[in-house]
Amino acid sequence: MHKHGRIALRRAAAILAVSALALAGCGNSHGAGAQSPSTLTIGISLSLTGDFADPGKAAERGYQLWQDTVNAKGGVLGRKVALKIVDDASSPDQAVTNYQNLINRDHVDLVFGPFSSLLTIPSSVVVNRYRYAFIEPAGGGPAVFSQHLHNLFFVQPAPTVQGGMVFADYILSLPADQRPKTAAYPSLDDPFASPIADAVRQRFEAAGIRTVYNAIYPAETTDLTPVITKVAAADPDVVVAGTQSEDAYGDVRAMIQLKWAPKWLYLSNGANSPVDFPNAVGLKNTEGIFSSGDWFPGSTASGSDAFAAAYVKKYGGTPDQIDSTSAEAYSCGMLVEEVAAKTGKIDNATIISTLHSGAWPTLEGDLSWDSDGAPQGSYLLEQWIGGTLQAVYPTDRAKHTPVTEPLAWAAE
Questions:
Q1: Arithmetic mean of pLDDT, 382-389
Q2: How far is CA 77 from CA 296, 316, 342, 346, 362, in A?
Q3: pLDDT (tens digit, 9 = 90+) per residue, 165-189?
Q4: In the chain, which end has fewer C-beta atoms inside a 10 angstrom radius, N or C?
């Protein structure tokens, strides 16, 4: 579920207007450009700096690991893969410029997507204009699919609002006398984050859970203490926070500072980063916090064990430290391989028409999409237990039962 922004251009309408920009200078880049018919060059705009840098680099690791893996097998239809990765500095307008340049100046064969719905929305408009396929790992907010772009394929199990739904399903599965009575919904003004909190709010209100706080804070907010102070004053049983990464960390740090904690805390993003989240808030303070996920070590999805082993060999660490964003990016490459194997071709028109038929095995599960690129599966609810992220719901896919102890700083 793949994790952020503090950028002034946050609203979708403003972002979409960016796609009309004329060609401008490209950001810093690395990797090979289109060189010969024996090379399959794939252009990617990624947030290697700026507010999305942590998950952007996780996506980069996944893309590069796939490049190494497929090239070790001889490439795609005999063509070695060369990635041209360009830094968008977490800026929607730079991402638009990057894809313009990758397609028109660098003449890449294919493109993969950036990180976040914020950058995917305007980028997808540009890519669609040039009739390129847009296989993208981390842009699944409602505004992405409301564009009705037939060339777009979101490489996660479901639209991201479904990440919040699995938390709502878990809470509403509890006996009535054990459910929360009140809830708060602080949300980042972001096309990924706020729709998740709002969808859960509607579910909870329909089930009789009373809303005591509901507010969207600006994308430029850096100090979450005033927001969390208001949440704490309302003293809800459950907090459902529509977050990206930095504001998720800020929420937790503010709660620790205020020495206040709800009984249940769900963060839509940020808390699902196995390394960055504990580094930002302290490992002991992660215990009991909920988020949503799509890939875990030990997954039975196609190629999962081989991916985890190759990742650890290349980057070090342990499988528990692999960010799911890397699995999402790697899966984009898997889809290219599978289309090539099935059709014997790897042009954009073939990718678009072929992926819209059947189900395709990836690290994210067997994926299929509707005509707008929305996948048809579901997420897992995850919780920090014993210092690692654990899948805890639904029960038939869980690796651990949910923990119900007070959050760490509340127990001190």
A1: 96
A2: 30, 30, 11, 8, 19
A3: 999 999 999 999 999 999 999 999 9
A4: C
Q: Mean pLDDT over all residues of the chain?
A: 91
The C-alpha torsion from 53 through 55 and 60 to 66, rounded to 10°, is 180
**Tokens linked to 387:** 């210092």
Q: Is the alpha carbon torsion for 93, 96, 98, 100 positive or negative?
A: negative
Would you say 117 and 65 are in contact if contact means Cβ atoms under 8 Å apart? no
Token couple for 409: 């700083």
**Which single residue is written with the structure tokens 């993208």?**
136
Residues 129/23, Cβ–Cβ less than 8 Å:
no
| Residue 110 to residue 135: CA distance in whole angstroms | 9
- pLDDT (0 to 100) of residue 37: 74
Which of the four pLDDT bands, split at 50, 70 and 90, describes residue 14?
very low
In angstroms, the Cα distances linking 362 to 138, 160, 281, 334 are 15, 18, 32, 6
This prediction has a pTM of: 0.86
Report the run of H or E that residue 104 belongs to, with start and end.
helix 92-104
Closest CA to 177 of 129, 261, 237: 237
Please give the structure tokens belonging to residue 286: 């992660």
Give all domains of the chain, ordered by start, each with its CATH number.
12-157+300-367 (3.40.50.2300), 161-293+380-410 (3.40.50.2300)
166 and 394 in contact (C-beta within 8 Å)? yes
Average pLDDT estimate for 55-63:
97
Per residue in 132-167, pLDDT tens?
Answer: 999 999 999 999 999 999 999 999 999 999 999 999
User: Phi/psi at 55 (nearest 5 deg)?
Assistant: -70, -30
Q: Please check whether residue 31 is in contact with residue 112, taking contact to mean a CB–CB distance below 8 angstroms.
A: no
